[in-house]
Design a protein that fits this description.
Layout (H helix, E strand, L loop, with lengths): L1 E2 L2 E2 L2 H9 L7 H12 L8 H12 L20 H12 L7 E4 L6 H9 L5 E6 L2 H17 L7 E6 L7 H8 L4 E5 L6 H6 L16 H5 L7 H13 L4 E8 H14 L3 E8 L2 H5 L5 E8 L6 E6 L5 E8 L2 E3 L2 H7 L11 E2 L6 H4 E5 L2 E4 L4 E2 L6 E5 L8 E2 L4 E4 L11 H5 L1 H9 L1 H5 L25 E6 L8 E3 L9 E2 L3 E6 L2 H11 L2 H10 L10 H4 L4 H6 L3 H7 L5 H13 L5 H4 L1
Parallel strand pairs: 3-4, 3-6, 4-5, 6-7, 8-10, 17-22, 18-21
Antiparallel strand pairs: 1-2, 7-9, 8-9, 10-11, 11-12, 13-23, 14-15, 14-19, 15-16, 17-19, 20-21, 20-23
Helix pairs in contact: 4-5, 10-11, 13-19
């Protein structure tokens, strides 16, 4: 049956029917339940008991299961919960204190009770009241069905996990061997904000980002990561284990930030699960498990959860954060600071207006509207999906480049290009609705990701959206006009075609490809980014590359071209690169 929107099995219903004489007295029924299953304050008031007894008399009034996927709520099934606790028991046993900060329907708590018979204290925290009841009823059912003499002291709190007083619990349990277990929400703070969820942490820049990063992508964070950091902050000096089902990106961030956090954790493991199979959701997720109260370590071994086959060892190695220690060891010689500045492409946040196709002497935008423009501000545009060829000067889309540098006044368009201005002005409402704060106080029709580098005739480019580390050489269009890239792409630009061809060859070389494999986490949302690319020291790659190989691989390159490219790293001061590339 269902009560408080929570399922109750027949053994619990039979228990309450058998003991209905206690249901008129809150103190007596709570004492009975405490003695039966260990839960403190099972009922909070007499009205809750009245609702239960009414539902029992009404004979199993059913309530539809809520869909809480929008909240990142993917309840762990009983089988997976059991597999997790079994794996934990292969690492450590004799746990005395179990904590689950987002306990949901209680499957991890039940699995822990079945797996470990030394538990003295259990704390579960859950904000969604029907799940609080579901957990309580499951625990009661477990003890009704199993003749267990010693019951743990159990509290299931209906509270917000972000403000719960964990430090007080940590002080009370510091002498107990601890298992922190759970499956916190697989959602970011901004995603919860868009659905007006009140289940949000108090707004804070908890990762201490500054400036632009704090107001754009890097200011966003994963709820599972936030809860994980709270747990490790409060309990890393407890003896025991921390074990969460979390997104792979969260595991990566925990290990990356371990260098500065210095939590007392070691022997970390990331066991990849099949989230489609377990939760019917397309998310890269893992069981992250690490031992508490150990000398801090900065690496993590990655396995397959089901076969336990080792995949890689990632983390800090040679003072660098890498995806594969073995591959990095062989390619680390080129890890440094890029002489060339890698740039992202044009950002306008107005794709249906700013991106269009050409047909005869006119253009067609994303709303299938025909219009005319002067050609001067119209450029070919490549997206990540266009960067598949070794070399290209073809494009599907075109765009209007309203500025040659960020912040440039756009009033000149009305004077010099009346057709272009009329088109932009008619659609000004789309520009005014752009939500990003980067446009605040900027001229109307502003774009970002634009500068002298955007107009270089030759570009070596890579997709930031795909997992491949293939680089494409982009040349001018048939009219000799530079081709632009959108903000999902990264590139370096050149005035000299021979230099561009050599750079393109070097970044596609085996050495660079092995290096990228060693540092890129392919399951990240943006696996390839500027930080990654800026670590490629092409000067070192150049020194380690034999010209004979280059001569046989690149048409039209001679020793003079090769030497001229090498001179870039010796004649020009690195601080001058901003104006050159």
């Amino acid at each position: 049956m269902n009560c408080f929107e929570a399922h109750i099995d027949h053994s619990v219903v039979a228990f309450f029917k058998k003991n209905d004489q206690f249901l008129s007295d809150l103190t007596k029924v709570n004492a009975l339940l405490k003695a039966t299953c260990g839960i403190n304050d099972f009922f909070n008031n007499q009205n809750e008991i009245l609702e239960l007894t009414t539902k029992i008399k009404d004979n199993f009034s059913m309530v539809e299961e809520p869909n809480r996927r929008a909240y990142g709520d993917f309840q762990t099934n009983e089988n997976l919960s059991s597999q997790v606790t079994e794996y934990i028991s292969s690492k450590q046993t004799n746990f005395e204190f179990i904590l689950e900060p987002t306990c949901g329907k209680g499957n991890f708590i039940i699995a822990s009770l079945k797996q470990f018979d030394t538990i003295k204290r259990i704390v579960g925290v859950e904000i969604y009241l029907p799940y609080v009841w579901e957990t309580k009823f499951k625990i009661l059912s477990h003890f009704i069905k199993n003749n267990i003499k010693n019951k743990p002291n159990i509290d299931i709190f209906h509270q917000n996990a972000f403000v719960f007083p964990y430090k007080n619990i940590a002080k009370q349990t510091q002498h107990l061997k601890t298992l922190i277990i759970g499956n916190p929400p697989w959602v970011t703070n901004s995603e919860l904000g868009t659905i007006d969820s009140d289940n949000l942490p108090k707004k804070s820049n908890f990762k201490k980002h500054s400036g632009f990063d704090a107001i754009t992508g890097k200011g966003n964070f994963d709820i599972g990561e936030y809860i994980s950091i709270i747990m490790l902050n409060c309990f890393h000096k407890h003896s025991g284990i921390f074990s969460f089902l979390i997104k792979n990106s969260v595991v990566k961030n925990i290990i990356c930030d371990q260098k500065s956090n210095n939590f007392r954790i070691a022997n970390a493991e990331k066991l990849n699960i099949d989230a489609k199979k377990e939760f019917n959701v397309s998310v890269n997720a893992s069981l992250f498990i690490t031992e508490l109260n150990q000398e801090p370590e900065l690496t993590c071994i990655e396995y397959d959860f089901y076969s336990h086959k080792q995949i890689t060892i990632f983390g800090w190695h040679k003072n660098k954060f890498v995806n594969s220690k073995d591959d990095y060891h062989l390619a680390s010689v080129i890890d440094g600071k890029s002489f060339f500045t890698w740039r992202s492409g044009i950002k306008h946040d107005c794709s249906k207006i700013m991106e269009f196709e050409s047909a005869n002497d006119h253009f067609i935008n994303g709303y299938n509207i025909d219009f005319n423009l002067e050609n001067d501000l119209v450029y070919g545009l490549l997206k990540s999906s266009d960067l598949k060829e070794r070399q290209t000067n073809k494009y599907r889309k075109q765009t209007i480049i309203t500025q040659r540098k960020i912040g440039q006044d756009t009033k000149y368009i009305e004077r010099k290009y009346p057709l272009t201005y009329d088109y932009l002005n008619i659609n000004r409402a789309y520009f005014d609705k752009r939500k990003s704060s980067i446009y605040n106080g900027k001229p109307r029709f502003s774009i970002f990701g634009v500068g002298d580098y955007s107009f270089k005739p030759y570009k070596v480019a890579i997709s930031g959206m795909y997992k491949t580390t293939h680089f494409t050489l982009v040349t001018t269009d048939k009219n000799g006009k530079p081709i632009m890239l959108d903000d999902t792409c990264y590139f370096i630009g050149f005035d000299d075609f021979q230099n561009a061809k050599i750079a393109h060859y070097l970044v596609n070389s085996d050495l660079v490809q092995q290096f990228l494999k060693s540092i890129i986490f392919t399951d990240s949302k943006r696996a390839i980014n500027k930080d990654i690319l800026m670590r490629i020291d092409l000067g070192k790659v150049y020194q380690l590359t034999e010209f004979d190989l280059v001569e046989n691989s690149i048409n039209g390159i001679n020793i003079e071209h090769w030497n001229n490219f090498g001179q870039l790293f010796t004649k020009i001061n690195v601080t001058e690169q901003m104006t050159l590339f």
